[in-house]
């Protein structure tokens, strides 16, 4: 069983996504997006607490980026897990994200 996703705002104004970002956790999390979708014009999303990510997780981040763009907001990812970085590169979609800190943590 996958560890559920949590989305929280930190004291510094950045957001943090934690848990497992996979096919089991994404659908229920995404269906509640109106509860957690930020209103800030620029969102920095720290992924250092993401333990596992698969293609469904990558797709959710792409949809999040698209939704924010429609709302005239920007999204920067920080501390991108190496697993996600590989998925983004293999899918040739890494250009859709700005990496706020250019850091990748190893699993």
From TrEMBL:
Gene3D superfamilies: STAS domain
Boundaries of every STAS domain copy: 17-107
Name of the featured protein: Anti-sigma B factor antagonist
Pfam families: STAS_2
CDD domains membership: STAS_anti-anti-sigma_factors
InterPro entries in alphabetical order: MlaB-like_STAS, MlaB_ABC_Transporter, STAS_dom, STAS_dom_sf
């Amino acid at each position: 069983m996958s560890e559920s996703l949590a989305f929280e705002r930190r004291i510094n104004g950045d957001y943090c996504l934690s848990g497992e970002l996979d096919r089991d956790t994404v659908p229920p999390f995404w269906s509640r997006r109106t509860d957690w979708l930020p209103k800030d014009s620029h969102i920095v999303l720290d992924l250092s607490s993401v333990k596992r990510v698969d293609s469904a997780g990558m797709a959710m981040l792409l949809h999040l980026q698209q939704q924010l763009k429609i709302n005239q907001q920007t999204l920067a990812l920080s501390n991108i897990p190496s697993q996600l970085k590989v998925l983004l590169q293999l899918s040739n979609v890494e250009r859709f994200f700005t990496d706020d800190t250019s850091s990748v943590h190893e699993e």
